[in-house]
Amino acid sequence: MRRLFPVTDQTVTSPPGAAPRSGEVQGDARADREWTLAELAAAYAYPEPHSGRREPWLRANMVSSLDGAAQHDGRSQPISCAADMRIFGTLRGLADAVLVGAETVRQEQYRPARAREAFAARRAAAGQGPAPAIAVVSRGLDLDFTLPLFTSPLVPTLVLTGAGAPQERVAEAEKAGARVVIAGEGASVDPARAVRALADLGLTRLLTEGGPRLLGQIVAAGVLDEMCLTLSPMLTAGDAQRIASGPAVAVPERFTLAALLEEDGFLFGRYCRT
Ligand SMILES: NC(=O)c1ccc[n+]([C@@H]2O[C@H](COP(=O)([O-])OP(=O)(O)OC[C@H]3O[C@@H](n4cnc5c(N)ncnc54)[C@H](OP(=O)(O)O)[C@@H]3O)[C@@H](O)[C@H]2O)c1
């Protein structure tokens, strides 16, 4: 793993394996080796609270191919890599809650988040539970509530839905042990209200793992603070979704590059709302 941005006197400028050119910095001690989870956690730390008060911070983590595909054969794994999965795990290890669309839960067969030793001390010091809560966003609640995601998570799984959600499905979710949170007037969840509802539960370090339809609404609602984007050095063609879909925003929203890491040709960008 190499840090390409911000550029410092520790930034490696030689390609892997090449002898440094004359006058070139020898390089970061972390270059060209796998970063530890602690190093990744430091690189992806959430912003510190302002004046003692922690405001919700919503970051997204998505992977895209060079030609913009967010999946291949219905899953993101074929365009991911080991380093991407380490960052995926790190972002979960830092989060209070993971907001995810029901279709991603169904297609990617979501399981409860694990408690990982590497993040235990950091989470305890930050006053977090052993693992993030998975917060599934759904209108119809057509979810298999017999799955471990609902019946045996370390911290109760949340189901975010609208006030118009089918009551028998709400009852099924609650019977399985999920906590149902109403965050919209009709069938749909209002993303801004969802963020506020999670913050009211003390969940302010928020991560969304998409999918594209949910992320599109989060972007349109103007509540995304940070985009963690893995650019995979692959081309897929076809008609896969992009990382965010749905109606376009009126004016493209500008984000600022905060950091760029590289491993094995994959780029890991962190962009914050300007
Ligand atoms: N490249 C990546 O990083 C990445 C990340 C995640 C997923 N993916 C891929 O993306 C695909 C799935 O994504 P997707 O865009 O089709 O679906 P999605 O965004 O994961 O889920 C869509 C579903 O979420 C619920 N939903 C969305 N907006 C809602 C709202 N405002 N209120 C209430 N419920 C709402 C609805 O669930 P109900 O139908 O239950 O009502 C809707 O059908 C999969 O192929 C997955 O592999 C890729």
Automatic annotation (TrEMBL):
Top-rank taxon: Bacteria
Gene3D superfamilies xref list: Dihydrofolate Reductase, subunit A
This protein's record includes keyword Glycosyltransferase: no
Pathway assigned in UniProt: Cofactor biosynthesis; riboflavin biosynthesis
Entries under Pfam families matching the protein: RibD_C (PF01872)
InterPro entries: DHFR-like_dom_sf, RibDG_C, Riboflavin_Biosynth_HTPR
Alphabetized SUPFAM superfamilies for the sequence: Dihydrofolate reductase-like
Region Disordered, residue ranges: 1-30
The entry's keywords: NADP, Oxidoreductase
Domain Bacterial bifunctional deaminase-reductase C-terminal, first and last residues per copy: 56-249
Official protein name in the record: Pyrimidine reductase family protein
UniProt organism field: Streptomyces macrolidinus
